[in-house]
Amino acid sequence: MTAIIQIKNLKKSFENHEALKDVNLDIHQGVIFGLLGPNGAGKTTLIRNLTQIYRPDSGDIFFKGEKLQPKHILNIGYMPEERGLYKKMKIEEQLIYLGRLKGLSAKEAKEKVKKWMDHFEIQSWKNKKTEDLSKGMQQKIQFIATILHEPELLILDEPYSGLDPINANLIKDEMLKMRDNGTTIIFSTHRMESIEELCEEIALINNGEIILQGKVKEIKEENKQNLYNITLSSESKWSDTLNNKYPAQQVEENVYQISLHQNNSNELLLDIIHTKASVIGFNEILPTINEIFIQKVKNYQS
Predict the structure, then answer these.
(1) Domain contains 300
(2) pTM above 0.90, yes or no
(3) Does some domain include residue 16?
(4) What is the CB neighbour count within 10 angstroms for residue 262?
(5) Backbone angles phi, psi at 27, to 5 degrees
(6) Do the domain assignments include residue 79?
(7) SS3 helix, strand, coil % of the chain, rounded to 5?
(8) pLDDT, tens digit, 9 for 90 and up, residues 84-143
């Protein structure tokens, strides 16, 4: 896969605090990339280097193979967690203004603003001021402002903040459509269920260092503990004979969790059959991204 962003040996310090320590990271084109980390880990500093709000002390960032430059701002959309809208400005005027800052003509900006306001069914808001909108409504306007110029790289920092489940789902659907159309999305959030659902690749940053990166499926495979759930029929039970060889924990009615060594599943199933128990379900338990996140951060700190 082609990398749209390459980060090489990136360092950034503030006075005596080293916010980024020799960060190396590739973000591939056309994926939703999860950027994870506890508070204060360096996520925001990394994002602000990507958006050229900050300049690194050393190291390089490349956009599509070219060293990151001011001109690339027109190819990037950034939605920060904190609001970036003008409180006293009317919504439609504000969106047109922000679209023009990102290189759209007045006509293009007006057409695109109308299209997105129609799409989100919020035309009635166009003459309202930002300060008159709820936090969730402001978030939708911020999202439109971020994608209006159709960026190749979209950076979303906690995009669901303040949104109810219906509107959060609306933003999620737009993210998926944009990804399918080739947009690369860097998705920074504390909502691990969203990372599981949307992200193909992730990086975990802690104390300014990347401590885990890769494809979600591969990371889960690498961190599995050979745990399995076995579901028996209602007429069967986990006998003492089985329990002596395969100590099991009952997690639900007729569902038992066991730990197995690799290549031992066939032997297990034969042993169960010999006890005349009937297996109706057998599945491996992979760790969640949340579990991996907690364990990696704990291991790093210890």
Answers:
(1) no
(2) no
(3) yes
(4) 6
(5) -120, 120
(6) yes
(7) 40, 30, 30
(8) 789 999 999 999 999 999 999 999 999 999 999 999 999 999 999 999 998 888 999 999
